[in-house]
Amino acid sequence: MTTAQAPTLTVLHEGTPIFTSYGNWLYPLFELEAYLADNAFEPAKLVLQDKIIGKAAALLIHRLGFRTLQAGILSKLDVHFISSLPVMQRLACKA
Q1: Of 21, 34, 55, 79, which cross-links 9 as Cys (Cβ 3.0–4.6 Å)?
Q2: Which CATH code is given to the segment(s) 9-93?
Q3: Going by DSSP bridges, is the β-strand pair 68-74/9-13 parallel, antiparallel, or unpaired?
Q4: Tens digit of pLDDT for each residue in 47-91?
Q5: Which residues of 32-65 are buried (b: 16+ CB within 10 A; e: fewer)?
């Protein structure tokens, strides 16, 4: 019997998933960067859902241009850090 693995990172455009990764660490964000380079989406208009966001991931997400995040796990320190970024509009997470 096989068990379906949940994605670790998903990007939504108007509520529809356009990118999904099952990778670990920062690799899903590197995959996303390559995907965005090949596809005409504006990250500021997308929603990024990540299982766990640390400071390195937050910096990459910011550099990619995302403004809306949904995180499964985010430390209180990282919530403060991400919220302080001038372009972040909305953050949903469990700290």
Answers
A1: 21
A2: 3.40.140.20
A3: unpaired
A4: 999 999 888 998 899 899 998 889 888 877 777 777 777 655 555
A5: beeebeeeeeebeebbbbbebbbeebbebbbebe
